[in-house]
Amino acid sequence: MFDLGTSFTASVARTPDALAIVDGEVRLSYSQWLARISSLVAAFDGIGLKPGDHFVTIMQNRWEAASLHWACQFAGLIMTPINWRAKPDEIDFVLENAGAKAIAFEAVSADAMAESALAAGLPLIAVGSDAGPADFSFGEMIAVEAPTATPRAGAGDWSLMLYTSGTTAKPKGVPRRHRAERMAALAHVAQNLYGSGECTLGVMPLYHTMGVRSLLAMSLIGGSFVCLPRFDAARALELIEAERVSNLYLVPTLYHDVVHHPRFAVSDVSSVRKLGFAGAPMTDGLLGKLTEAFRPELFVNHYGSSEIYTFTIDQNAAAKPGCAGKAGLNQLIRVVRLGAASAAELARPGEEGEIIALAASDEAFEGYWRRPEADAKSLRDGWYFTGDTGYFDEDGDLFVTGRVDDMIITGGENVSPVDIESCLSLHPAVSEVAVVGLPDERWGKIVVAFVQRASAVSAEELDRHCKVSGLANFKRPRCYEFVKAIPKSPVGKLLRRQLVAGEYEPERPDLAAE
Description:
With 514 residues, this protein is of the alpha/beta class. The protein has 15 helices and 26 strands.
């Protein structure tokens, strides 16, 4: 199989003049982009970087970040991107854990970099004129012409290391080889039915598997990657209209913000024919709203992870709300009983259990970076134990119900937050909702719904809605908390743990229902 550098070279040969990347005034064809990438590879040599070195970036989705990603693929460096919001101690953890050899940063991450204890001992590359002092300047690096870069990595070499978001412990490094990255991108193209010359909105972060997949997928089809450095719904709508974006691949939260923005009604989004979402379940209410608003030719629910990119695919997400579909092109899925010790302890159809995926997948990682205890927990019998809960229905379709750690056990019954959230999302006065279990002396835990209201509504009215909708009595929330906003991670995932810990802002009294 091709390494990614060779893959990009082949794309340039096929479509040298196709528009490859857009970022404000920057518009580069594939051949023009390769020239900039080649200059970066030569600059890496000047810095003294060697194949196998970890190259850390702390940047938003700008064309320079995408260029550094590709330059690392050519140079054989291990691209190691981290959240641009990272704090100094988080930066230090990654630098030490990865054994980083150089860092690229921009103005938005400059203060944290300046406070990092370990960054000062490494070559620093400043991106943008406002990034502050550094050893090297990205602008100067690309200003020097260089021979066209020759790929130095093989398909079996490390390409990328993403860090999972740590919730109760330090984040885990997920190293991935060139062959796994390219295979995941190929499957992404096939499963989303991308055609030649597609255009995507590059807003999912390049430190996240969804962002990386969009970047690589566009390169395979001579497509355009339109950078949106930091999500803003109004700017997203402007770019969709101006660049005639043909597909979107976002987390549900971003779709929610786009379709509910005041400018959506007057924006031309007719170019968007394919929708894909991942990263979190989508509520029934949002599925319906997006279907009505975009009328897409394809609406894909993609269920996966950083470790093994694709678990399952449903190419008609709106037809069977909540369904994650069947195993992807490169995968085999099982559901085992909760607490199962091995992959052989299968759950019955309709029985909720833990979802596991075959670790022999062409898209799979091979283990966490320097975390043998995490490998022992997650990799067993040749299967990857996802930590997600779900079940197969009578048609063999997978439904993902949440995380093992999010399961609410109330009065001896297992309750999935996702079922309740989907039910409440259909009430017109509910903007967003998250459900958690809070400690209770009698029941162990009680079901509590945190609601961001779109208009005035009472807890009593929402409870009646749950009853009328047919939600089982033991699943109905026993308490409603009305909040200003639902806490989320930078990529839009619900942060239930913050709600459990009381880390949220209550709705202002003047917005309360009568």
